[in-house]
Amino acid sequence: MLLEKIEALKAQIETLKADNSEALEALRIKYLSKKGEVSALFNEFRNVPPEHKKEFGQRLNELKTLATDKINSLRERFHSQEADETSHLDLTRPSLPLTVGTRHPLNVVRKQIIDIFSRVGFTLADGPEVEDDLHVFTSLNFAADHPARDMQDTFFVAEDKDDVKRNIVLRSHTSSVQSRVMLTSQPPIRIICPGRVYRNEAITARAHCFFHQIEGLYIDRNVSFADLKQMLLYFAQELFGPDTKIRLRPSYFPFTEPSAEMDVSCMLCGGEGCSFCKHTGWVEILGCGMVDPNVLDLCGIDSSKYTGYAFGVGVERITNLKYMVKDLRMFSENDTRFLEEFQAIH
Predict the structure, then answer these.
(1) Cβ-contact 171, 198 below 8 angstroms
(2) Order of strands across the sheet with 256-265?
(3) pTM of the predicted model as reported, rounded to 2 decimal places
(4) Which of 122, 138, 272, 275 would suit a FRET pair with 170, their CA atoms being 20 to 30 Å apart?
(5) Residues 6 or more apart from 16 whose CB is under 8 A from it?
(6) Which residues contact 346 (CB under 8 A, 6 or more apart)?
(7) Residue 105: is the preceding peptide bond cis (ω within 30°)?
(8) Does residue 235 register a pLDDT over 90?
(9) Mean pLDDT, rounded, for 170-199
(10) Distance between CA atoms of 259 and 282, rounded to whole angstroms?
(11) pLDDT digit string (tens) for 265-318?
């Protein structure tokens, strides 16, 4: 009777099929689990007469081996199929989609300004952020007792009290790049100098200890203040729109004479007056002037033959005006919520 059950169960096992992993698991439980059909036959083996135990034991072991091999072969087939289906997948890819980044608003405005001046012949010039006194102050006509040399304004990296020219500082303006170019080149010179600068100021919504500038310098024969004014008008209208107006107010800088501050007509009220422009209709954006002859001579350029103009604009200031960012600190806090607001800007 037991032998017949073994042969019948063997015939079933040899024809086992499964369409998926769930069906295969059901077969394993049916035949090989503790309460499965093969295990039930082993339980009946206890009732076999001693003289037949050897024969029936061999048959039962063969049946269990057959069932185990059949289940394993079906499992390997499913694993092979699943591997074929996933072989085209890149398992090193992140499981979640990555958030698309965006350009920083300061970089957007910086590029816009560079593009504007590049179209009229200005080339890029660069220099170190850790500078010496010669390029930051002395060659630019700063007096030895000028307040800008004081610790209240400048970060000193290394200071020599006996020889001010050997002082090492974090540059407080990118004019140091202009002096490097003038000390190593002869006119015509037409450059713009973008970069980060540092000043010892309290960090507030309107000021920071580091910020970004783009300064320009043009030196050649017969360069006049009229050339400077026309260039700045072109710049303002390219950046803020063709209806933008400018005005120049007298000012003072050690390296330019005469010097001026430039305002543009308020882009919010069109010059009519609003709270943004303090009801004046004008917003200050940069300083400028004709290069002081002393600067030309200190840099080895003959001031009797050449003249030039210089200007400097704060990138944060322009970005504030274009996008109405009220707090300067937001530019350096890396808050993704703030940066995501500029995803549509190209």
Answers:
(1) yes
(2) 123-124, 189-198, 210-220, 307-314, 282-291, 256-265, 246-253
(3) 0.68
(4) 122
(5) 27, 70, 71, 74
(6) 103, 108
(7) no
(8) yes
(9) 94
(10) 19
(11) 887 777 777 776 788 889 889 999 999 999 999 999 999 999 999 999 999 989
Residue 86 has pLDDT above 60, yes or no: no
Tell how strand 123-124 and strand 189-198 pair up: parallel
Per-residue pLDDT tens over the stretch 105-119:
999 999 999 999 999
Length of the chain equals 346
Using pLDDT thresholds of 50, 70 and 90, give the confidence band for residue 85.
Answer: low
244-271 pLDDT, tens digit each: 999 999 999 999 999 999 999 887 777 7
Q: What CATH code would you report for 105-342?
A: 3.30.930.10
CA proximity to 196, closest of 180, 215, 179, 217: 215
Distance of alpha carbon 75 from alpha carbon 71, whole angstroms: 6
Strands 282-291 and 256-265: antiparallel
- Distances 342 to 102, 110, 126, 345 between C-alpha atoms, Å: 7, 14, 27, 5
Q: What tokens were used for 70?
A: 């059949």
Residue found by looking up tokens 């190209």 in the block: 346
Residue 88 has pLDDT above 70, yes or no: no
